[in-house]
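Q: What structure does this chain adopt?
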Amino acid sequence: MHGVVTLLSGSAGAGCEALWDTLERRLGLTGVRATPYPHFSWQIAERYQVESLEAHLIEAARNAAPFTVRASGVAVFAGDSPVVYVPVVRTEALDRLHRTVWEAASAASRGASAHYEPDAWMPHVTLAQGDVTGSGVGDVVRLVADEAPAWTVEVDHLAFLWQPDVETARLQFRVSLGRSAPDGVLR
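A:
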C-alpha cells in the first residue's frame, strides 16, 4: 500500500520511535517498521499516479494553514491481525483538511481504502501491526500504556509514502501547508 501522510516530528516523532524500540526490544515486534516513518495517514491506496497526486496535493496544501492536534492514549483495531495505535483527536481543522486531501488524493488513486473515507476515518499513529497476535495484543497495550503517549502533533505538511510489494516504504515527496511548491521530490 501507498499513502498520503503527515510525518511526526519533534517530541511526537521521537516518542513514537522510542515506543517502537521498546516494543522491539521487549516483545520482538518489528512489523510496524515496514513503514519506518512515524506518521498518521490521510488516505492509503493500492496505486497512485504520482505526478498527478503531487499536483493535486500542492493545490490542496496551498490554502491550508498549519495547525496542531493531540494524539494520546492507546487503542486497538481488533481482528485477525490486530493493530495497536495512538488515536489522533479529530478537530474541525483536521476534518476540514482531511476532506480536502481525500478529494485531492482520490483524483489520482486507485483502490483507496474505505477505512480512510471522511465519514469512516479514524486518524491514528500505528505502534504495532503485522506481527501482533490476538493473544499478544494485551502485552502490547500494557507496555504502551505504561509509557502513556500524549503528543502534540504539528500538521504542517502532506507527504507521500510509496511501498512497492514487500519493500520498506520510502518517502517520495513532501509539500508544506501554505506553500505553492513542493518541498522536494525524493524519487
